[in-house]
Amino acid sequence: MLQAASNPSWLVTAIDFNPAHIAEARAWAHAAGLKNINFIEADLSSLAESAAAQGIPEADFVTIHGVWSWVSPAVRQGIVKLLRDKVRPGGLVHVSYNALPGWGARLGMQRLLRTVGLSVPGRSDRQAEEGLKFLRALEQAEAIHLAQSPSAKNLLSRLDQFPAGYLAHEFMNGAWSPCFMADVAEAMSGAKLEWVGSAQLTDNFPVLTLSEAQYALQRQFDDPITRELIRDMSTDNPFRHDVYVRGARRITQAKRDAALMDVDIALNILPESLPLEVPAPAGKAELNPAFYQPIAQALRDGPCKVGALLGLPDVEGRRDNPAELLGILVGYNFATPAARSGAAPGVEARLFNRMATYRFAEGGNLNQQVGVASYRLGVPVRATVLDMLVADCVDAGLTGANQIAARATPDPEQQVALQPIVQEVLDNRIPVLRATGVI
Ligand SMILES: C[S@@+](CC[C@H](N)C(=O)[O-])C[C@H]1O[C@@H](n2cnc3c(N)ncnc32)[C@H](O)[C@@H]1O
Fold it and tell me: Domain spanning 46-102+178-246 has what CATH number?
């Protein structure tokens, strides 16, 4: 829905076999007045052969997020058939999944949580909670594959943050099986899809993910799939986001650089918040302030072309490497490519955001991170529900924290307590939402 709201000229087809998901999504789209999205309730294992598939148009871009490693081999085959029939030559497919060997040390954890869960009667979320309780007890009892596995311990320590429904979805699923990237690539070749890179941009830069020794060993192989296996063996990466193309065409580096110079990007943070270092295999990599600060400042009010940023007079450093600039700024989520750089906030995106904000607010957690639509970027922007409530007030012409607090509550004491919180959003988040075209 966020894609449809951010790109009103697109026609989006959304598929799921759970009728509750489809009904809820249709209700949201209706409430937001979204006309460019069709919802199909279908089982992907048989959709390609069904009459419903005839109505699905050819696709330029497909995203299969959080599905592949959760479904049976028959459903995976059905997905490949649908991609084979519907992805246009030159079309892009994004697929995300739980990956091996990253998940390897945690396999026993999932298996035991599910086995224990299934031994108690009741709903799957209750079962997942029982399974988790048992895992914790076994960790306390120093079970080797829990207490002495850093990766299992790390995951176990974070599971409390998730609602029971999510645990059930993740761990009680009988079809769940994490995959080696090579096996997903092999399956995708059945739809003439070729792996071209990781959607997590930093993964495509060995210097940001591998040590020198690991990179030297990786370079012994030309095959990109073998290189990815070596990378997956060298890093703790339990979840992959991969991009495939139907009919990838090679281009020269000069052509690639020219295309990248022409990309517009918008900053997702205030220029002052750009850190001086980022995580890297050897601990941290420094971001030269003489290079990055002028670029960040130039992006304060909205998107700019990479070529224009690298041509800024006060930038000190290499001006001929647009891939590195994009890799760092977009890869670490400091910036996002902007599809329509100078565009005003779109009507469809604003209506959707308004509707979604008040629905999320009903949940009561105003610090919840959500995605919001942006016509300027053509992709969603992250914001909290509180950010969006304040943004809605700003949109309505309220400018002061006191005015906004007064609109939120009639209680004077609560207004006083609220003002600094609203001021923080006005100072730090509203400028970013403006620059990214959300408001
Ligand atoms: C982890 S969720 C991901 C949902 C969504 N893609 C997202 O990003 O939030 C997996 C989804 O796959 C759907 N699903 C599972 N098996 C399916 C099947 N055989 N056909 C169609 N959808 C299926 C589930 O109903 C669920 O909504």
Answer: 3.40.50.150
